[in-house]
Amino acid sequence: MNHSDLRAKAPSLAAGMAAADRNPYIQLAQTRHRAALVASWHIAPGSAVLELGCGQGDMTAVLAEAVGPHGRVVAVDVAEPSYGAPVTLGESAARLAAGPLGPRIDFRFGTDVLDRSVDFPESTFDHVVLAHCSWYFASLGQLRDTLARVRPWARQLWFNEWDLTPASGDQLAHLLAVLIQGQAEAAGSRGQGNVRTPFSREGLLRLLPEAGWTADGNRSVDTEDLQDGDWEIAACLDLVATEERLAVLPEPVRQLVLSQADVLRAIAKPRGNRALAAYSVTAR
Q1: At residue 52, does pLDDT exceed 70?
Q2: For residues 197 and 143, is the Cβ–Cβ distance under 8 A?
């Protein structure tokens, strides 16, 4: 399936998501972004795909469209179905399962592939996909171990994440919000946000060989229409306003976080902050 085919189907795919009931514009932007990614990955109809960190299924729906009626997507997430707001993972999965893509998708929530009870025969999957989920890992070591665990199960890895290197000044607010959250997590203030272990594209490329993968391509990905910059800025400002989250930080780190938050408030716009770019890495 080519780029234009998937892009053309983005509106119908977005409409099938539970979150579209609340904000169809945001859902459409998120789906279009993922449709462009999957189209560039050349996933053939009939493919078997393992998706790690599927969340509410934004990428899952696009993957299911790409593999066609004779393919399958096993969508895994460590979170329970009750996780998420304002739409839970379970609610979103139920909407997808009830639609035309449902027979192609096997959602497995509350599942950690590092648990030895989770296993697949060698080369069960044509592709393993991680899309905008890797910063949620507790550490780079956990990510490395996860990538090593799935290595025998799939022939190719498709990896997508935000790029820490800003391309312009209007992305600095998103970057600062990400780094503040990462510092708080690294210093022991654990939360439930999307940003726990931010790392650079170069960091991933250093990590892949340790997990048994060989990178064979990487490129930047446009995110101009995505709202994630606004979301992470809001999440960061909520963090620094939460006394319990700050109280566990060592005092020098707490003061550093508070000072950076002052800068964030000064440079961030009320809304419409430009998101960082993303990148896509392929490996075998």
Answers
A1: yes
A2: yes
Q: Report residue 160 as tokens.
A: 């997508």
Structure tokens at 206: 């250093």
- The mean per-residue pLDDT over the stretch 106-129 comes to 97
Tokens of 175: 């970057």
pLDDT category of residue 2 using cuts at 50, 70 and 90: low
Angle at 131 between CA 80 and CA 63, to 5 degrees: 90
pTM (2 decimals)?
0.93
Residue 251 has pLDDT above 90, yes or no: yes
One-letter identity of residue 213: W
Q: Is the peptide bond before 86 cis (omega within 30 degrees of 0)?
A: yes
Contacts of 215 (CB under 8 A, 6+ apart): 205, 208, 281, 282, 283
Average pLDDT taken over every residue of the chain: 95
